[in-house]
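User: Could you write out the 3D structure of this protein bound to NAP? I've included everything you need below.
Assistant: Certainly. Input first, then the structure.
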Amino acid sequence: MSNPEDTHTSQKVALVTGGGQGIGAAICRRLARDGYHVVVNDLELERAEVVAADILALGGSASPAIADISDSAAVDRMFDQVEAQVGPVTALVNNAGIGGNAAIRNVTDEYWAHVLAVDLNGVLHCTRRALGPMRDNRAGSIVNISSRAWLGWWGQSAYAAAKAGVIGMTRALAVEMSSRNVRLNVVAPGLIDTPLLRNREPDALARLLKSVPIGRVGTPEEVASAVAFLSSDRSRMVTGQVLYVCGGKSVYAYPDWPDEK
Ligand code: NAP
């Protein structure tokens, strides 16, 4: 899918983790339209290749890159390859994540460690590696995908802890990197129409929808639009911020689920 001979180092390069489906795929397509060469990371090569092929078919530039973001050595190898093929990553989107819904009595040590390994440690691995060249080049943007759920929701203790950690890390690094012209921000989606959501029971989904003031689920493209803004120079005075894409749920969530599930 990637054709290194067609690429050149002056091009803006975006790497989107978990870009093979859902919100990540929409972010890949949007950043490609905005002129980036998009590196589509995922666990599965086939999935990343499909998204990269779509982008190429539309006249954009993209290549797939496989790595499990919870494995820091694999992440380092992926960045080494990307830099050799298309140059340093100028925009990183830490999108890959796993959901999870477990009442606290079901939160085992293994479950907790797994959710944090992907949703928090994975963000650290990619961010730390991307920041090296960004710091040296005094340019770059990182957008981390957290979740409105970090504010609290039933069955979300591990997920919310990881997503809150992402926000804390982003804010701290935004300060640390401010003198280097590298910005870090968070996009926190609410209920978004993806396979992750479609797997829910219909009545559970209907109950969840009652908690969204705007009254509908969001689209992956609406999340991608916020990411595109924060990745671009249009937001050059914005760093360390959390942008919610949740139809107002962060402002007011109707408590329609009174019992532990
Ligand atoms: P999704 O449809 O499950 O897509 C996530 C992608 O990331 C999948 O292709 C997945 O591969 C991949 N991935 C998982 N673990 C990975 C790893 N260790 N390394 C590399 N790739 C990995 O999820 P989504 O709904 O688009 O969510 C994207 C992000 O938005 C996540 O961070 C999620 O927490 C956040 N978010 C989603 C919603 C929502 O309503 N959908 C709401 C708030 C926040 P596999 O399928 O093989 O695991």
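The longest strand covers residues 182-189.
User: Perfect, thank you.
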